[in-house]
Write a structure and sequence with these properties.
- With 126 residues, this protein is an all-alpha fold.
- 98% of the residues lie in helices and 0% in strands.
- The chain is rod-shaped.
Length: 126
């Protein structure tokens, strides 16, 4: 019986020692996992900062490219507007000259066009 009691005590001591060892190992593993998580977080933050920097650079490049396109389009639009305005002024001058050269013929043509348009519009109402 004494050996059984001694064996039981030894087993209890061994179990308590195992429990303590498991607690220590668990704490050590927890600390290692925290270190790994901290290192992974630091790497992730560095990558995010790097990606943000690249994104800002690309944004600046695209913004400059868009400004160039805008400036080019604005210049071309202004050229087209000036050209169209000049052509319109020429057409207006030509028309005024022709009306002044032949006032009776111009009045007759205008009257004829008015009558035709009036007949067309009146025909739609019926």
């Amino acid at each position: 019986m004494a050996t059984t009691k001694a064996a039981r005590t030894a087993v209890k001591n061994d179990i308590n020692t195992l429990k303590d060892d498991l607690k220590v190992l668990g704490a050590e593993e927890k600390a290692r996992l925290r270190e790994k998580a901290t290192a992974a977080e630091a790497r992730l933050r560095a990558k995010a900062a790097e990606a943000e920097t690249r994104l800002r650079e690309e944004t600046d490049v695209l913004r400059e490219r868009a400004r160039g396109y805008y400036d080019t389009a604005r210049v071309r639009g202004r050229e087209y507007y000036d050209d169209a305005s000049e052509r319109f002024d020429e057409a207006q001058r030509y028309l005024v000259e022709r009306v002044q050269e032949r006032p009776m013929q111009s009045t007759g043509i205008a009257l004829g066009v008015g009558v035709v348009l009036g007949l067309l519009l009146a025909g739609r109402r019926r």
